[in-house]
Design a protein that fits this description.
By secondary structure, the chain is an alpha+beta fold. About 40% of the residues lie in helices and about 10% in strands. The protein is built from 10 helices and 13 strands. The protein is rod-shaped, with a radius of gyration of 52 Å. The model has no long low-confidence stretch (mean pLDDT about 90).
């Protein structure tokens, strides 16, 4: 009777009184001599999934002379050969045994799960060769990636160089276009002088293009909700604007009469008591007289842009009305009557009486506020066109009405003292 059979009969006889299965297995294992392969194999036959499997398998491999380091190499070799051997800890557990059996079957050995010395050496050597092959492949792949990266970098460098060249050419083209535009602008400036006087003595100032904030914030003293919302407007083309309001003398030359309430003020005083429609009649006659279609009323955006003269304050000279008496005629200094044009200081654009003296008719229809207003300086031709915009205040106005953003209205056919206009002229 073999050792394993004897032990098997002992186990099958059942536990002695007071002993558990675990205690019996422990007694069984403690009776096994690790150096005896026969006894260890007998334990494994009785307890194929016992608590001392690792120790039993370690005994068997130990009998082959496999040190733990070598057992770890076996496990790593199995893993390199794509056999799932578990953690490489030198203890041949179930996962390692299963991997050994699979490797043995692939090599046409008896799939026992236990390695002979020769098998262990062969498996370690095979694993090392597989690892070396994998390293060679990794290095080759690394070289391929390096070469591909080098090519990619070269291609990227070529692309960047091409893009830089394209940008350089585009920049040169833009600079040439800018220079050409500046040359054309300079030529136009020579053709269209900074100031000129027309056939009836109206003096004009060239207003350059620009961008400004139209309207006023609610925090500005004297603010009215018709002055909002504040919005950006770009005047893209230069235009001429009268240096002064149209005078009684100039009106009389074109129209042959003088409708002004303050006619005793003198010929250099602004014409007033004219309606928006009267101003259109003057413009029509003047265009006909000179054979052009260039004279017109300024748009509301053009007027405010020119009136501000590059400022963002309530008046063209600053935020407060303290110096208003130096720049315009109003209720506080005019005795509520008009005065000859040009007696006060001009704004930064060289325009006189932009604050006060007479209200100035504007081309635009009346709108209650700037919601939906044009942003390019065009006249607002929609809204209540029976009413037209007035700007600048008059000799009878309070300081708040002389602010650059102040807006008023009157019927297009309404004539009142203190209503006049300043002429604009488009460039051909």
């Amino acid at each position: 009777m073999t050792w394993s059979v004897v032990l098997l009969l002992l186990v099958q006889a059942g536990p002695t009184i007071g002993q558990t299965d675990e205690e019996i297995e422990q007694v069984f294992w403690e009776s096994v001599e690790c150096k005896s392969a026969r006894q260890v194999q007998a334990y494994l036959e009785v307890y194929p999934t016992g608590r001392y499997l690792a120790e039993a398998w370690g005994c068997l491999e130990g009998q082959l002379g496999l040190e733990r380091a070598e057992r770890i190499l076996v496990q790593r070799g199995l893993a390199t050969l794509d056999y799932s051997a578990g953690v490489a800890d030198g203890l041949f557990g179930p996962a390692t045994r299963k991997a050994i059996r699979a490797w043995q079957a692939a090599k046409e050995f008896a799939a026992t799960g236990y390695l002979t010395r020769e098998q262990a050496d062969a498996l370690i050597a095979q694993g090392r060769e597989a690892a070396a092959a994998a390293e060679r492949q990794r290095r080759a792949e690394g070289q391929r990636r390096t070469e591909a990266e080098r090519k990619r970098q070269e291609e990227e460098a070529r692309r960047q160089a091409a893009e830089a060249e394209r940008q350089r050419q585009a920049q040169e083209a833009a600079e040439r276009a800018k220079a050409e535009q500046q040359a054309r602008t300079a030529a136009k400036r020579q053709e269209f002088p900074r100031e000129f006087t027309n056939s009836v003595g109206i003096e004009f100032v060239l207003i350059e293009p620009g961008t400004f904030q139209m309207g006023s914030p609610a925090t500005e003293p004297g603010w009215d909700d018709s002055e909002g919302p504040v919005h950006t407007v770009t005047i893209s083309k230069p235009f001429y604007l009268g240096k002064y309001e149209v005078t009684q003398e100039q009106w009389q030359v074109v129209m042959g009469d003088n409708p002004s309430y303050f006619s005793d003020c003198g010929t250099t005083c602004p014409v007033e008591s004219v309606s928006w429609e009267d101003a259109q009649g003057f413009i029509e006659e003047l265009n006909l007289r000179e054979g052009v279609q260039l004279y017109r009323l300024p748009t509301e955006a053009e007027w405010e842009y020119a009136a501000r003269g590059g400022t963002h304050t309530a008046y063209s000279f600053g935020a407060g009305a303290g110096r208003l008496r130096f720049y315009g005629w109003y209720r506080g200094n005019s005795e509520r009557r008009t005065h000859p044009v040009g007696e006060k200081r001009p704004n930064a654009f060289g325009l006189y009486d932009i604050h006060g003296n007479v209200w100035e008719w504007i081309r635009d229809c009346w709108n209650e506020n700037y919601a939906g207003a044009p942003s390019d300086g065009r006249a607002w031709e929609s809204g209540d066109c029976s009413l037209r915009v007035l700007r600048g205040g008059s000799a009878g106005s309070y300081p708040r009405n002389l602010r650059s953003a102040d807006r008023e209205w009157n019927s297009a056919d309404g004539r009142r003292s203190g209503r006049g206009f300043r002429l604009a002229r488009s460039l051909p």
